[in-house]
Structure formats: structure tokens, C-alpha cells
Amino acid sequence: MAVVSRGFGGRREPTEKPLPPGQFLTEDFPVLSAGPTPNVDESRWEFSIHTETGEAHRWDWAALQAMDAEDVSTDIHCVTRWSKLGTGWRGVPLDAFFADVETEDDFVMAHSYGGYTTNLPLDDLLDGKAWLAYEFEGEPLAPVHGGPVRLLVPHLYFWKSAKWIRSLVTQADDVPGFWEQNGYHAYGDPWLEQRYS
Ligand SMILES: Nc1nc2c(c(=O)[nH]1)N[C@H]1C(S)=C(S)[C@@H](COP(=O)(O)O)O[C@H]1N2
Ligand SMILES: [Mo]
Predict the structure, then answer these.
(1) Which residues contact 174 (CB under 8 A, 6 or more apart)?
(2) FRET partner for 131 with CA separation of 20 to 30 A, picked from 52, 63, 142, 168?
(3) What predicted TM-score, i.e. pTM, was given to this entire model?
């Protein structure tokens, strides 16, 4: 944005966005993976949502491509203290996937190809707050960054944005995922510095 504020004495200063507490800016895009990058070809990619009734909702690559996608510009914040501003993604909001899903559960576990898991309240995935992202800065999402498709939940620390997303399973209780079992915070709000539990 080209917004400038005229400070005392008429000096022009660019507006500075605050960072969440304890974060520093990075210009590059670090890779943080707990294991090797799984090879998930688009031709065998599938995403599913499972609820307490045992019902499953499934989408393959063609179904994903047929859905209305959004361009998202957002800041991302890693618990290891790097933040990256104005990152550009393209993806489908989770609201579209949950449109026909009925559940009484308040939480979900995200499961990735490769076995990673992370837990979130269902509400944090809805109302335009989360996406299944498949492009980064106009290019197909690179495998190391979660391609072909990753979860993008930018209002929480980036460990909640599961790379290589495979499924979401609703759950009545907030059962901890991979990093949450290893000491990370159950929720992970970067503005409240919810790093560790
Ligand atoms: N499947 C999977 N998703 C993951 C991770 C992981 O190890 N495996 N790491 C998380 C962490 S800790 C961070 S900070 C981000 C890093 O994403 P990046 O490698 O694209 O920067 O992915 C998150 N999602
Ligand atoms: Mo992270």
C-alpha cells in the first residue's frame, strides 16, 4: 500500500505494520518439515472430510480445480520466530468444502500425507479464515512447501497450516496433533504468543 503518514516536521514515513510479539521479518521462505517431503502426485491426490457419523466427503484434483478459488495476500508467522509479510496464495476457502458437511463436533484433526497431524477448532477453518492452497506467488505450490495442496490458516502460527493435506477428521474434543503432543500450544495465536503449552 502506498499510504504515507506526514509526521512532525512534514517528514514522510511509510506506515509500518506491527509484527506479533517476538517475531522478526524474513524475506526468504524457510522450509520447516518434520520429515521427508512426500511425493503426492496430483493424479492420486485426494482430500476428504470425515465426521462422527462415519460419513466421508471426498474431492480429487479435478473436483478441486472446478471449485471457486480466491487469491489471498496474507502474513505468515512461524513459532520459530520468523514472519513473512504479504505472501500470495491461491486456493479454495474451507467454507466451500464444509458447505454440505453436518457435524456437532467443535474441533478437527488435520491429517497430511506423510503422517503429520495438527488440531484446530472447526470455527478457525470457517468464515473465510482458511484455505486449501495450491499456488504460491502465481506458481504451483512447490512440494517442499506442501504441494500439491496445503492447508493455509494464516491467523494461527504456521505449524497449523498442514502441508500435503489429506483429510480433516472432526472430533468432539481438542485432541492434540503432532507438535501439540510435543509441547506446542493447543491453539497457537501469534498475537498472544501462544507458542508452547
Ligand atoms: N505436513 C506437514 N505440515 C507442516 C509441517 C510439517 O512438518 N509437516 N511443519 C509445519 C511448520 S512447523 C511450519 S512453520 C510450516 C512451514 O511451512 P513451509 O515449510 O512452507 O515454510 O509448515 C507446517 N506444516
Ligand atoms: Mo513452525
Answers:
(1) 106, 107, 119, 121, 186
(2) 52
(3) 0.93
